[in-house]
Amino acid sequence: MTDKVITRFAPSPTGFLHIGNARTALFNWALAKSMGGEMLLRIEDTDRERSTDEAIAAIISGMDWLGLDYAGDPIYQSKNIDRHTEVALQLLAEGKAYKCYATPEELTEMREKAKAEGRPMVYDRRWRDRPEGDAPVGAPYVVRVKAPTEGQIVVHDKVQGDVTFKAENLDDFVILRSDGTPTYLLAVVVDDHDMGVTHIMRGDDHLVNSARQITIYNSMGWDIPVMAHTPLIHGPDGAKLSKRHGALGVEDYRRMGYLPETIRNYFARLGWAHGDDEIFSSDQFVEWFSFAGLNKGASRIDFAKLENMNAHYIKTCDDSRLYDLMVALAEELNDEFALNGLKGHADTVKAALPALKTRAKTIVELVKSAEFIYPARPLEFEEKAKAAIEGDALEILRSVEPVLEGLNDWSHDGIDAALRAFAESQDLKFGKVAQPLRAAVTAKNASPGCFDVLLLLGRDETLSRLRETTAV
Questions:
Q1: Domain 383-470, CATH among 1.10.10.350, 2.40.50.870, 1.20.1050.10, 1.20.1090.10
Q2: Where in the cell is the protein located (predicted)?
Q3: Residue 243 labelled as part of a binding site
């Protein structure tokens, strides 16, 4: 085995990049980086019927968005089928595997008998030691590995500890199907060996697979990689994360307005810990990462915590980058109104971001909050904003309109002085003037403060909107 640490992320391209798989990639990436090694990306596309180019593109795009770099180009498992078959035939030639002619009917009978006896189905090895002469002429067969029939198989796991399986519960599994194609259990071992993978980190639902695959490693005389099986991510209710819990794919989180650093940080904390640290950079994550920090138990996703963490990263994000993220999201969501507004008022939007980003939990909210800069006309008022300009408030707005029209010093201090003088002359609290004025020109319940809004919009736009509102 090489001295260089090599991990791999090996998704099946049958759909989107599941957030649970993305966390597996994150852990493999951090492990490799922390130990001075590298991570490889292997696309396990041997299921040609279910594998799609769109899914492959989604996986690669998701990895790029998360900032999880890998060494070299993606490796496609389907291109290694001849090598997988070569290993199966080698095991067959060496007497470490055998041809099995059990019919579908016989396998069904075994399955039904096991079910009736309340035990898992285990192939009864009926063709394991039979002479070749017993084989029915021209009948289809599969190739099964000769697994140990007694004793134990131990998976030395860096997360779960030593996990022991009784050999009698692990049957002679198929490594070559009747059509000559290799199975997953074989292909993964061959690829990991040929790629020089030293550390395998994946979900704990693969523990039984690892026990079986150890048989192939031992039969071939290959070194067994270091193994670590991490618990799956559960929903808030403790059940395995599924569609009913909401977003499952990495692209879902991107479209919902989460930053990649939020996803890296939050999902790193689901199943791994460094003391009580909650918010940390990717560099810190790599520096601190170790098997010792991985949890044995499943973690529950908390969407409120995820949002709060995203709000933190938005507040600390560079304004130019935030603007680019807003435009990119509007493009991805095909929101022409927002896209035209963001691009047509780029300078104003960027100037508003220091105030806007303190309130936003997602990029979607940030885009929405910027709409007051480029609203549809006539203004469409939110309910609370509409209520803020009714009754006495409307009369106050009509009275303050000429004050603003006559104001030449359109600066923070100039606007402040004029509005405060007006409020005092009318024996009003300042808020009775500022709040309806802000609502009148934004049509929003939430927006930056009154002075910020008026400065961002400028004198002409402010007066245009104010006249529109007071003309009712």
A1: 1.10.10.350
A2: Cytoplasm
A3: yes
Q: Which of 33, 79, 240, 243 is labelled catalytic?
A: 243
Beta-bridged to residue 143, according to DSSP, are 99, 176
Per-residue CA distances from 279 to 10, 30, 187, 267, 294 (Å): 28, 16, 39, 11, 17
Is 60 exceeded by the pLDDT of residue 1?
no
Domain boundaries, the chain: 80-184, 320-373, 383-470
**Is 243 in the active site?**
yes
Over the stretch 400-450, which tens digit does the pLDDT of each residue have? 999 999 999 999 999 999 999 999 999 999 999 999 999 999 999 888 999
Which superfamily, per CATH, for 80-184?
Glutamyl-tRNA Synthetase; Domain 3 (3.90.800.10)
Find out whether 173 and 208 touch, Cβ atoms under 8 Å: no
Alpha-carbon distance of 352 to 334, in angstroms, equals 23
Angle at 189 between CA 186 and CA 194, to 5 degrees: 120
pLDDT higher than threshold 90 for residue 201: yes
Task: Say what the pTM is.
Answer: 0.90
Length in residues, the chain: 472
Token digits for 353? 């971001």
The tens digit of pLDDT for each residue in 204-259 reads 999 999 999 999 999 999 999 999 999 888 888 888 877 777 667 899 999 999 99
Task: Give the per-residue SS3 of 381-393.
Answer: CCHHHHHHCCCHH
Residue type present at position 290: S
Cα–Cα dist 148/167, whole Å? 6
**Residue whose C-alpha is closest to residue 346's, from 328, 320, 372, 375:** 320
Alpha carbon distance, N-terminus to C-terminus of the chain:
80
